[in-house]
């Protein structure tokens, strides 16, 4: 009986303690957002070719198994099929954590609802169009279909960029 | 009404519930729904209420979004960020209550007796609440499929709110089927060894332990970020 009581109190303390930690983290993040504004963000360090396509994989700090799979399959689909476009700068792949200071704007820019693969076309540094490859979540368990879907979408964007 | 969007909504729901991401909450739901092993009718009703709870949450959320009261990225980000964090402590406390490690404070013996006498009904209502809360605890897969695929589908079709209901049924289907099968299976084993009462107490203990363990997992993964 005493052991049950101790276990109950310990669980209650753990649950309460975790809520206190959560509140403290949220407070710290709020202060951090203010002091870190204008800090590190996703930067275009590369020299812009006249036209370019960027494949962004957007994620958050919490990484789930499905999210890691999408990132891996997306990378493989692009690297296996677009070697020359990657090497001459017409295409690039960037992995961005939208929870890092300075990157939050991507959520609104591309209406992100989860981890996402987004193709962006830029001409002279200005964005001309973008597409969220929403079906990556539905094709997650079919790697061949997944890669084919990404390959076709990137090829269409590259053709447009080259037109 | 076209059948294809209906089937798509159902399939999106099933797809949502079979990934590794909602596995933790599905284990809790299955153990909770299947705990009344001696009363298959109660398992069935609890499964129905769990499905209703999920469908209600998705429909309510879709209604608010379709009405333009919430932005899709805003709602998705908020629910993914905070609901999973709050779920851990809630599951731990619920598990401790199920295991009888703690008891709800009661201020008069009359109230205590009333709560006690209504425990059966509360048990069933809790299945609906569990479905509602778990539906709103979006993980990346469910957020992508609900906000990214189901909402655009609902916006294009009439009536808009039929599709979140079907999606909700789809998300509950695998859980309810497994819980039903488990209840029938456990009951059969219990009758075979003629110790159904003992089997039931073991199943109830497993339910409580599942709540506590999964709650601790949620706290470690989403609050302390160590998993």
Which pair of chains has the greatest number of interface residues, and how are they split between the two chains? A-B, 35 and 41 residues
CATH architecture descriptor text of the largest domain in chain A? 3-Layer(aba) Sandwich
| Number of DSSP E strands of chain A | 4
* Average predicted local confidence, pLDDT of chain B: 84
State Rg of chain A: 21 Å
Q: How big a fraction of the residues of chain A is strand?
A: 15-25%
**Rg of chain B to the nearest angstrom?**
19 Å
CATH homologous superfamily (4th level) name of the largest domain in chain A: Glutaredoxin
Q: Which structural class should the secondary elements of chain B be placed in?
A: mainly alpha
What's the tally of helices of chain A? 5
Helix share bin of chain A: 40-55%
Number of strands of chain B: 0
Largest sheet of chain A: 4 strands, mixed
**So what's the overall shape of chain B?**
globular
From the structure above, extract its key features.
heterodimer; A: 163 residues; alpha+beta; Glutaredoxin; four-stranded mixed β-sheet; 5 helices; elongated; B: 227 residues; mainly alpha; 9 helices; 81% helix
Structural commentary:
The complex is a heterodimer of chains A (163) and B (227). Chain A is an alpha+beta fold. Chain A folds into two domains: 32 residues; 125 residues, Glutaredoxin (3-Layer(aba) Sandwich), CATH 3.40.30.10. Chain A has a four-stranded mixed β-sheet with strand order 2-1-3-4. In chain A, a hairpin with a 2-residue loop joins strand 3 and strand 4. In chain A, helix 2 packs across helix 5. Chain B has nine helices and no strands. The radius of gyration of chain B is 19 Å and the shape is globular. The mean pLDDT of chain B is 84. At the A-B interface, helix 1 and helix 2 of A face helix 4, helix 7 and helix 9 of B.
